[in-house]
Amino acid sequence: MSTWVLPGAEFEELLRSFRHRAWRWECQGTYRQPAEAEPWRRWRAGEPDDLTWLRPWLDEVATATRAGRIFSRVRVFRDPPTEYQRWQLDVSPANIAAGEDLRVLTQVEADALGLPARDFWLFDETKVALMHFENQRFAGTEIIASPGEVNRYRAWRDIAYDHAIPLMVYLHDLTQRSR
Questions:
Q1: CB 54 within 8 A of CB 91
Q2: Fewest CB atoms less than 10 Å from the CB: which of 70, 131, 136, 177?
Q3: CA 149 from chain center: how many Å?
Q4: DUF6879 domain: from which residue to which, for each copy (predicted)?
Q5: How far apart are CA 115 and CA 110, in angstroms?
Q6: How far apart are CA 133 and CA 138, in angstroms?
Q7: For residue 41, what pLDDT band results from cuts at 50, 70 and 90?
């Protein structure tokens, strides 16, 4: 049994109310979130970014991690990374500085490991928020709490996490390859 939750306050409550660990599987090559449109445009134009638009998320992560809660994610990157993913490589060190454990798998690795092609969050080992997108925009989540289904997502999380490398290692390796 699953429940549909639209984006907004209800989903944000899931992000605030977890007790121990929130883990994200992020596998889309591009996201088109309205709040990111202007910062991405500025990045594409070579303009500076003070990350003000990202500050609420960074503050939430920092507050949670100071309280002993864990935010982590594995991102799947194309080879070569999409334009959006290249932007994320510039922005994401701020996530790490806020306390998020951010790791990377290549698309080839994710496919070889049989990992899903759908984004999701796993909260406290007991609840999955399967994310739905329309035209690369977040449209809502399907909440899954059935222990059998949640175990499948936990197994995918464990596989992904065991094979992923820290973002900064990935970034270093990518820089070395492009020389």
A1: yes
A2: 177
A3: 20
A4: 9-171
A5: 5
A6: 5
A7: very high
- Can you read off the two tokens belonging to residue 109? 């690795």
Domain range for 92 is 2-177
Strands 70-77 and 101-106: parallel
CATH number for the domain that contains residue 55: 3.30.870.10
| pTM score, whole prediction | 0.90
CA 21 to chain centre: 14
Q: pLDDT, tens digit, for every residue of 109-135?
A: 999 999 999 999 999 999 999 988 888
Q: Determine which helix (DSSP H) or strand (DSSP E) holds 142, and give its type and residue range.
A: strand 137-144
- Count the residues in the chain: 179
- CA-nearest of 166, 116, 113, 129 to 7 is 129
Is the pLDDT at 15 greater than 90? The verdict is no
Query: What is the residue type of 44?
Result: R
